[in-house]
Recover the amino acids of this structure.
């Protein structure tokens, strides 16, 4: 019996991985249906998500190719330099540090800082302009059945039929769980506090990664004289800090932020997020592939989480589009295993590297402090090694999908 599909691809999840994936597949000639549990207006509300994302330069090339950058005018803050240092609260930073300067590896900035809500708005506008994409939201996928094709039953009783399901529905992916794909991971016992700071002096596009005993304190430059803090503390300490009044909270922030940008003060709401590591044991099943946070969730140190997901997007789209062009079954396991082979090692390796860095730096043990400070200083004095780390952070190392090279899928 021939399976009749409404779309070539069903994407469950219309967030920061799901919508770029839809655009990539559609621009590769496939028809796409996206089902997302959130109302698009809710997902772009300023109160929904206060985070910013460091979009690496390879991911920026993909956004440009997908037509997303055209909707981000005035919203992108170039990252010109990254300063990495170690220290203690109120004692200041170690004299040994690591400095990344984008001019060492080319004219492109190391990436761009963009508020998540503005990324979502730009993605939604790009999707609206793509006739091959149908977005169903807000709506919940209640059940997915796999066979000759994919049949998804929605909460309202409607059915969506496709040749392949791509799950981009987050760390707690119901699609992954229903498919019986297990995960491995652990809780860091840390919480990330996120808020915006206004400061007196211009930041010049310099991002700071300041390692403190409780966890990394990242100062990420935003458009204007503003910065986003991603402030990691042990969970009990984070709860106490979040419970402080505005002025006491500001004093704790200033004790870590310092005065290098002049007078500064937190503005707007505070957000907090528990920090965990989670890795899916498998990325694929027949007619199913996991993408982005559904496949992996890592510590936010170095801001690589979304970029890993965008590399998944570029690889998954390329694998599926290439198979379709060859007349192959895009949901066949042997097709999808190419995607798994391509992405799993990179994701696991970087996840464990971020885990190791967090464990190395999030303590106040004397010998470890000496070793890591020396390590930062040594890397800073070895230009080839420094440039390698910059290219790696920019997503330009390894077997890159076409979109990350700025080419059409």
């Amino acid at each position: 019996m021939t399976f009749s599909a409404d779309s070539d691809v069903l994407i469950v999840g219309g967030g920061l991985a799901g919508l770029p994936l839809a655009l990539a597949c559609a621009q590769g000639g496939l028809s796409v249906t996206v089902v997302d549990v959130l109302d698009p207006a809710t997902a772009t509300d300023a109160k929904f998500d206060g985070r910013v994302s460091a979009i690496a330069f390879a991911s920026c090339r993909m956004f440009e190719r997908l037509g997303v950058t055209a909707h981000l005018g005035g919203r992108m803050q170039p990252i010109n330099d990254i300063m990495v240092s170690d220290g203690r609260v109120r004692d200041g930073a170690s004299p040994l540090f690591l400095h990344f300067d984008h001019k060492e590896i080319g004219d492109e900035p190391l990436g761009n800082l963009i508020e998540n809500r503005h990324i979502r708005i730009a993605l939604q506008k790009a999707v609206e302009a793509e006739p091959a994409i149908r977005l169903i939201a807000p709506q919940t996928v209640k059940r997915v059945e796999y066979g000759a094709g994919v049949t998804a039953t929605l909460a309202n009783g409607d059915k969506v039929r496709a040749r392949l399901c791509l799950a981009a529905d987050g760390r707690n992916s119901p699609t992954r769980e229903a498919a019986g794909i297990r995960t491995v991971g652990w809780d860091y016992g840390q919480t990330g506090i996120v808020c915006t700071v206004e400061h007196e002096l211009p930041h010049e596009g310099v991002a700071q990664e300041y390692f403190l005993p409780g966890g990394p304190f990242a100062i990420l430059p935003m458009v204007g004289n503003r910065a986003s803090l991603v402030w990691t503390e042990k969970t009990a300490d984070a709860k106490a800090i979040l419970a402080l009044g505005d002025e006491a909270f500001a004093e704790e922030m200033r004790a870590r932020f310092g005065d290098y940008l002049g007078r500064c003060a937190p503005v707007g709401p505070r957000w907090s997020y528990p920090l965990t590591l989670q890795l899916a044991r498998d990325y694929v099943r027949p007619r199913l592939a996991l993408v982005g946070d559904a496949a992996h969730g890592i510590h936010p140190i170095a801001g690589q989480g979304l970029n890993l997901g965008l590399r998944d997007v570029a690889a998954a789209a390329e694998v599926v589009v290439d198979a379709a062009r060859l007349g192959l079954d895009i949901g066949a396991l042997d097709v999808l295993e190419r995607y798994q082979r391509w992405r799993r090692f990179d994701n696991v390796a970087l996840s464990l590297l971020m885990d190791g860095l967090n464990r190395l730096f999030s303590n106040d043990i004397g010998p470890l402090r000496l070793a890591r400070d020396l390590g930062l200083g040594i890397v800073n004095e070895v230009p080839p090694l420094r440039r390698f780390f910059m290219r790696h952070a920019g997503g330009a190392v390894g077997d890159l999908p076409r979109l990350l090279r700025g080419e059409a899928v």
Observations:
- The two ends are 32 Å apart (CA to CA).
- The CA atoms of residues 224 and 379 lie 31 Å apart.
